[in-house]
Design goal:
Layout lengths: L1 H18 L2 H4 L20 H14 L3 E6 L2 E6 L2 H8 L15 H4 L8 H11 L5 H23 L7 E2 H16 L7 H4 L2 H21 L7 H4 L3 H27 L3 H7 L6 H10 L5 H32 L1 H14 L9 H6 L1 H13 L5 E6 L3 E3 L2 E3 L3 E6 H4 L41 H18 E5 L8 E2 L5 E2 L4 E6 L2
Parallel strand pairs: 2-7
Antiparallel strand pairs: 1-2, 3-11, 4-7, 5-6, 8-11, 9-10
Helix pairs in contact: 7-8, 7-20, 8-15, 10-12, 12-15, 14-15, 15-18, 15-20, 16-18
């Protein structure tokens, strides 16, 4: 192993010599050491790493550079700079660190680029048509009512770890809406489903571990390590679960070609992919890529968002009661199903969700590859540079938001005072989140259903939160809320 490492360091030295760039060197940033540059600075606990980055953004108010061996990185958290990168199609390729989850998501919509990305995006868009979302509403409400059954059992408990329950809710929902299969209450508790959720978490941890160690960037080195072998096991679990989902829908859809053509506006995402396979527009591997992508993006990020929403509502009783008052005024039946028109009238709840997404964006950072030189005011960013966009820090800028660390939903009741790219919880530009309307509807229905039955009381407070570095915004410890019946 050490022989390989020594050889790699020699290669790094050679590459660094040829890649040295004057334009990059003048950008401010922490000084590094010869050859490895800043690489050793990031070999720390993922919790410390998260707050280390917060310190860097406080020191470098606009942007800063890092260099991890031969990999040049520019980090931005200023809205004007972010707009220059993501508003348009020039810098549409995802950054290098996404390669570490590519063994799982491969060339799905998150990671694909160029013509393949355009074709897939166009193919998948009908799955999120307004009419389709209306049909999904009933499914989301059903799963939200199932969530209530689990919360009913928690009312005698002094505290409830809400994340596992919300993960079950969002996983059930994405499977039934986008994939067209049902995971019943019993199977939600089975080993395979629980192991699937744990495997997603583990894969994120392995990716961060690898990103912190520049000598593990080459696949042939990483695959020889213990973490590399563990990742292979995790990938087998994720692949197996996805295959079960696809095979189950295939069986249900054996005669579905004609049905698809007749009911196109109510078809689910997986049906669109299966039809595209019949039309030879995509193969079985491509279907697997998109199913993995949407199973991940459609359940993990939404459950994380709901976790922080419930935390904030529990710690802000006045806000919680204002939402309940709004529900009393909007809903024709406090116990019945919610209509689409009623959902649209829940303006204050929407402000609360948006404010929670501001403070705790489920995807705290994204990256782009600078394929062609980029000018950011006085700085020339050379091609081949990785660009990290820190959404978490962007959303907490005092020059964009008054009292940025405070939970103030009212800021979304008026016209934005911040720069258009100062608030991007679903990213922005051509590569914005294709499922953001679906996610907003799911969050609204979940909050509506829970608050009609329960009062949320604080246990974990925002000050208790310890956040760790991951591809998504995860906390080191569980987030607890106390549930008390309203009647």
């Amino acid at each position: 192993m050490w022989r390989i490492l020594c050889i790699f360091i020699i290669i790094l030295k050679s590459v660094a010599w040829f890649l040295k760039c004057k334009e990059f060197q003048v950008i401010p940033g922490p000084r590094g050491i010869f050859i490895l540059h800043n690489a050793l600075e990031f070999m720390m606990d993922p919790v410390k790493l998260f707050y280390y980055f917060r310190g860097l953004t406080n020191t470098y108010k606009r942007l800063f550079k890092l260099q991890l061996g031969p990999v040049k990185v520019i980090i931005i958290h200023n809205p004007e700079d972010i707009e220059a990168v993501i508003n348009g199609t020039k810098y549409i390729s995802k950054g290098y660190v996404y390669n570490f989850i590519k063994p799982w998501l491969k060339e799905g919509l998150i990671l694909s680029k160029g013509k393949k990305w355009h074709v897939r995006r166009k193919m998948i868009t009908p799955a999120f048509h307004f009419n389709v979302l209306n049909n999904f509403k009933l499914v989301i409400e059903k799963n939200a009512r199932n969530l209530l059954k689990f919360l009913d059992r928690e009312t005698k408990s002094p505290k409830t770890d809400i994340s596992p329950l919300l993960h079950n809710f969002t996983l059930n929902t994405i499977c039934e809406t986008a994939m067209g299969i049902t995971i019943d209450e019993e199977s939600t508790q089975t080993y395979s489903v629980q192991e699937y959720k744990r495997s997603i978490h583990k894969l994120g941890q392995y990716a961060v571990y690898r990103a912190q160690r520049v000598w593990l960037y080459p696949d042939f080195v990483f695959n020889l390590t213990n973490i590399g072998r563990k990742q292979k096991k995790v990938l087998r679990i994720l692949s197996s679960f996805r295959t079960q989902v696809v095979d189950k829908r295939r069986e249900q859809n054996l005669d579905g070609q004609e049905d698809f053509k007749q009911t196109k506006k109510s078809v689910v995402l997986l049906d669109i992919l299966l039809q595209a396979e019949r039309d030879r527009l995509i193969d079985s591997e491509g279907i697997g890529e998109e199913v993995d992508t949407f199973m991940f993006g459609g359940h993990d990020t939404t459950s994380i968002a709901l976790t922080f929403i419930f935390l904030l509502l529990a710690n802000h009783q006045n806000v919680q009661e204002k939402i309940v008052d709004e529900l009393n005024n909007v809903l024709s039946s406090f116990d019945g199903d919610v209509t689409t028109a009623e959902l649209l009238q829940m303006k204050y709840m929407e402000c609360c969700i948006k404010e929670s997404l501001r403070l705790y964006p489920p995807i705290p950072a994204i990256t782009r590859n600078i394929d062609v030189p980029l000018k950011l005011r006085d700085y020339e960013i050379p091609s081949g540079t990785e660009c990290g966009i820190l959404i978490y820090d962007l959303h907490r800028r005092s020059d964009q938001f008054v009292e940025p660390l405070e939970f103030r939903p009212e800021r979304f009741q008026t016209e934005p005072t911040w720069q258009p790219y100062g608030y991007i919880p679903f990213s922005a530009g051509p590569r914005n989140c294709i499922g953001q309307k679906f996610a907003m509807m799911e969050m609204k229905l979940a909050v509506t259903t829970v608050l009609r039955r329960f009062r949320l009381l604080p246990v974990t407070t925002p000050r208790d939160l310890i956040i760790t570095t991951d591809y998504v915004l995860r906390t080191k410890h569980p987030v607890y809320v106390k549930f008390q019946k309203r009647y």
